[in-house]
Amino acid sequence: VTIGEAFQMFKLENENCIISKSKFFKLRPENILPVSQMPHNVCVCKYHYNFSSIFDSIAKQIQQPDFPSNYHELIYEMCCDTSKEKCMTNKCTRCKSDIFDLIDEEFHVDLNTTIQWKEWDEVSERLTLVENTSS
Q: What is the top-level taxon of the source organism (predicted)?
């Protein structure tokens, strides 16, 4: 999560707290790095955040000991070789292509449960953290 994303999440979760973006940035802990100082192998794009967010919401509902503990483990369950672009872009015929089929078949989970998650979406040409609910 970038410092900008953290600020938006903070504002959503603390609506009554009045703090400017610049003050929030000044108060950031030392271990929270600006994007310009983050390692290049760490992705902070909206797609990875959104996938992680929905995975975490699903995992909270499932609560099975054999269910992957994070979305990286789920990707390893789905892909036959995570180092190959073909596998990571859903073009491999051997990989499992549907996450919902995998969850249903491998973990026998009722996917009709309502879940809530946050995702980054473009609203008025700006990325905004929005809350979603679905089943």
A: Eukaryota
